[in-house]
Design goal:
This protein has helices spanning about 1-35, 105-110, and strands at about 40-50, 55, 60, 65-70, 80-90, 95-105, 120-125, 130-140, 145-150. The chain is an alpha+beta fold and about 150 residues long. The termini are far apart.
Length: about 150
């Protein structure tokens, strides 16, 4: 009887150790997966550039410097963002690209930056844009991630 009790105890301890190690291994695997998470766009904010700052807006005036602030989940080195500004329907023009700008996150680009997860794309008109509907398509690592529509009034 004592041998059966001792055997059962040893088997129980062995199972406990084996399950404990597999749980720790699973936690380590999960931690590894977390470090390799994909960068995502958390939010975008339309803003008017005024001097050296941005003011959030819902629409623009025709002579404003337009901006879209893109907030990433993390500033991962090597991430590429592209903004494509376009007229949707304004001044008799439709579906016309205005400007395309690409940015890659590098150690130099984010060094000393207050908000390294925020990328600013701005567009300064040479002459006032016509009133109407516009958009900016945001690409994350060459895939369309978000379209931000806006109006010029």
């Amino acid at each position: 009887m004592k041998i059966n009790t001792l055997s059962a105890f040893l088997i129980g301890c062995s199972l406990s150790l084996a399950l404990g190690h597999s749980a720790i291994a699973k936690e380590n695997d999960e931690d590894t997966d977390d470090s390799e998470t994909e960068v995502t766009i958390g939010k975008t904010v339309l803003a008017r550039e005024v001097e050296d700052r941005f003011e959030p807006v819902k629409s623009f005036k025709s002579d404003d410097t337009f901006a879209v602030l893109v907030f990433l989940s993390e500033p991962k080195i090597g991430t590429k963002l592209k903004a494509v500004w376009a007229i949707v329907d304004a001044g008799g023009q439709q579906d016309k690209k205005i400007l395309e700008k690409t940015v890659e996150i590098t150690p130099e680009a984010i060094k000393g930056v207050e908000e390294p997860n925020r990328i600013n794309f701005s567009l300064t008109p040479n002459e006032p844009f016509p009133t109407g509907d516009y958009k900016v398509d945001i690409y994350l690592n060459d895939e369309l991630a978000k379209t931000v529509e806006f109006k010029i009034k």
